[in-house]
């Protein structure tokens, strides 16, 4: 039976736990800087204008229905999603080396990656051991359990120098060099979560060369395309460089793509998983797709349709695509404006310490440098919530609360 002696109680998920505590907080000026979801200047969830237009088009189209999608998902979504992330001119697409399948947003895509690796990626021919998945220290809190629940071992690579707020590039590269040949390196494609610090192009080249030289498999997690610079192609630079540069010799490249953030479709679970094979091999493409299809069929039968149809319409309708690109600029520039406003206010208050890193960090988050104790105090005294590692979702700031947040930070660091 189910005995309490062998079902240990787990702590609540840290992020969703914050959401719950925030909901119960009665503080009149409370601010949620926890979960990474975009908010507009009134602090409200934002339905992107491009999404509204697509929804309208979809619901008024004569053939709109709620039938099952194919096991592999909506073809127009997966094909266009590959182009958005790999580029219209992608060599890998032209050479038919890309296997794409629809996923339950970014998390579902990472799960498919974990499954594929656990089942079929071996560090060398003839070995039976699965590879170790190297994850940045720090990283998105869910990464470790997504891989470990599929039976894979994880390890960390040094990433952030918390003191200097730069990447520990030498230790990072040393870890790549010392990892057993054929390990997997999970790379944040853009807008690193939680640090907001991405490698420079020069650092990317050093990292990717080391991964290639040591026979490792790069796995790009791309949850924030468009949030770093506002441009889809600029934010895909590292990943496209890895895939399109002939000098690298990877055993393949895996790409996990989420439309949760960049389409504001969080709850609709729209995403794709792409396997880029090193050489064109029709039989291998087909075998990989068949195995991924089996995973999908056994776990969710087929992926959800509604969000997929909306994103597909955006990607295939030029006016909607243009509107989407505009929406990405709206979101990324509002966030950047809030970074500047927060720092200006902290400087005006003379808050001890340097806060310039908040403006320099990219994407939705800032790794503020606040200690766990300071974040606890911020929640207790001010009703301002962020994760205990000091990560604040800058998208939760707006003209109405930024001064209050600065005042709270000022209060807890003094
Ligand atoms: N990867 C990273 C780094 C993330 O921050 C997130 C979401 O916060 C995800 C993946 C997956 O998000 P979703 O499953 O909602 O697409």
From TrEMBL:
Coiled coil spans: none
Domain Aminotransferase class I/classII large, first and last residues per copy: 29-409
NCBIfam families linked: PRK09257.1
Miscellaneous note of the record: In eukaryotes there are cytoplasmic, mitochondrial and chloroplastic isozymes.
InterPro entries: Aminotransferase_I/II_large, Asp_trans, NHTrfase_class1_PyrdxlP-BS, PyrdxlP-dep_Trfase, PyrdxlP-dep_Trfase_major, PyrdxlP-dep_Trfase_small
Catalysed reaction equations from the record: L-aspartate + 2-oxoglutarate = oxaloacetate + L-glutamate
Protein name: Aspartate aminotransferase
Cofactors: pyridoxal 5'-phosphate
GO terms under biological process: aspartate biosynthetic process
Known EC number: 2.6.1.1
This protein's GO CC annotations: cytosol
Transmembrane regions listed in the UniProt entry: none
GO function terms (MF aspect): L-aspartate:2-oxoglutarate aminotransferase activity; pyridoxal phosphate binding
Pfam family name, one: Aminotran_1_2
UniProt similarity note: Belongs to the class-I pyridoxal-phosphate-dependent aminotransferase family.
Gene source species: Brettanomyces naardenensis
Alphabetically ordered keywords of this record: Aminotransferase, Pyridoxal phosphate, Transferase
Subunit annotation: Homodimer.
